[in-house]
Amino acid sequence: MLLQIFNSPIAPGAQAFLLIVCILIGLGAGITAIDVRSTLFKKSNKEDNH
After folding, report:
1. What sign results for the dihedral spanned by CA atoms 8, 13, 18, 23?
2. What pLDDT digit, counting tens, does each position of 16-44 carry?
3. Claim: this prediction has a pTM higher than 0.70
């Protein structure tokens, strides 16, 4: 399905825009996952120390 989208005859600018949006969404999801993990581990460590 992705190959069909990227091979479709749309403007190269729109193609690059879609690619950048997909990359940004992936990076955002990864960063939020890392933030959630770090905050959960920090909270659990604080609770363990107290």
Report:
1. positive
2. 888 899 999 989 888 888 888 888 877 66
3. no
